[in-house]
Design the sequence.
């Protein structure tokens, strides 16, 4: 599994960013964020969580 896929999937499934950083060896969120790819589903879910209460 590629690093970008691992980071994105782990965060989407609820793994805490600090845990993902520990596994991937990133020392800062700034460094790790380049590997985060927002999926259409995650964008949709975030919008629904805020606006469809």
Sequence:
């Amino acid at each position: 599994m590629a690093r970008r896929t691992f980071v994105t999937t782990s965060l989407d499934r609820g793994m805490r960013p600090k845990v993902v950083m520990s596994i991937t060896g990133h020392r800062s969120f700034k460094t790790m964020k380049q590997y985060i790819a927002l999926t259409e589903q995650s964008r949709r879910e975030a919008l629904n969580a805020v606006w469809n209460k």
About this structure: Residues 3-51 form one domain.
